[in-house]
Amino acid sequence: MGAGGGSGAAGGPGRGGGVKRARRPEVRLPRLEPFRDGELEPDGDYDGLEFREEDLTGQDGGGARFMDCALRGCALDETRLHHARILDSVLTGPRGVGTDLAESTLRDVELVDARLGGVQLHGAVLERVVIRGGKIDYLNLRKAKLRDVVFEGCVLVEPDFGGARLERVEFVDCALKGADLTGVTLTDVDLRRAGELDITRGVDRLAGAVISPSQLLDLAPVLAAAVGVRVEAEE
């Protein structure tokens, strides 16, 4: 699928409350050639390549473009991908700490079984992206723009959505632990199927999201504190 070809699955009305569902990517990779260059290059152009178990630790691919690529089992410790564009691609089993994807663009991407920590995605643009399985600690999405994004079956530990804009984003069978929603803007965000929903900051910014009745009960103490309501038993 070429540039702009990521049509995504059609959206449409969601279940209940008229919340719109996210459009998922439809990635169809062509026959891939193995990556043989050894190291990434800033502003590099990578098209139709398979990166298999490459150690990209500390390498600089800032501003690079990846189209119709597959990254499988790659090490991304401190890999610099600032301002990179990842299009119509699949990342399976990436691992690493401190990967820099700040201000990058991910469009029509599947990220599967990641084991990452301290990923910098602040100011990034994610469109038609599925993040499935795995665990990501301290994900930095401050001021990022997410549209048609699905978090599915994954664990997010202390994700920071501060100042981000989320539109048609779904959390399905995943755990949000210690999420920061400070200053976030939500439109058609479906949290009802999140397996765990723990919001430490920004609970007052949930307008534009839909939650389940049981989640409302779980969040009641935090919501009460946010609006200054004291809850005490009658004497």
TrEMBL record:
Taxonomy, superkingdom: Bacteria
UniProt biased composition (Basic and acidic residues): 24-39
Extent of the signal sequence: none
Alphabetized Pfam families for the sequence: Pentapeptide, Pentapeptide_4
Biased composition (Gly residues): 1-17
Renumbered residue ranges of the record's region Disordered: 1-49
Protein name: Pentapeptide repeat-containing protein
